[in-house]
Amino acid sequence: MHIELIHELQFRALSGMQRYPELFKTTPVYLCGQEPWLTIRKALEAYQGGKVGHKSLLRGMLAKYGEVYFDELLRVLENAEAVPCKNWALTQIARLSDAISQNYEEGRHAA
């Protein structure tokens, strides 16, 4: 499994989770365990939990983690607006989980 596909699926899963914040509670953290997705997930959870405001979220990401993380956060926020429904979000999370499992199995068989 190509790492690019897993990154894309992490992006999609986070977009769905941002659109439907209750999914943060039911989606295991390890699914978005690669960077920058893990940091973005933690930032979005803090935002959704009311621990940081919108401006603080953006400024903090840019100041602490730099332009790459900031750009990916913006992409997630923008894409979340286009998430069509909760089922789409759940499908992306399931696809990500399947891809990670498949990647793990391929790694075990290659060793």
Give a verbal description of the structure.
Helices cover 76% and strands 0% of the residues. With 111 residues, it is mostly helical.
Q: What is the secondary structure topology, with strand pairs?
A:
Blueprint: H1 3-19, H2 23-26, H3 37-48, H4 54-65, H5 67-80, H6 86-110
Rg, nearest Å: 14 Å
Ends distance = 15 Å
* Helicity range: over 70%
**What's the SSE pattern?**
HHHHHH
**Helical run tally:** 6
Strand content is under 5%
The biggest sheet, with number of strands, parallel, antiparallel or mixed sense and barrel status, is:
none
Instruction: List unreliable stretches of 5+ residues.
Output: none
Shape summary: globular
| Average of pLDDT | 93
What class would the helix/strand composition place it in?
mainly alpha
Topology, number of strands: 0
Task: Based on the model shown, name its key terms.
globular, mainly alpha, 0% strand, 6 helices, 111 residues
Can you summarize this structure?
By secondary structure, the chain is mainly alpha-helical. The chain is 76% helix and 0% strand.
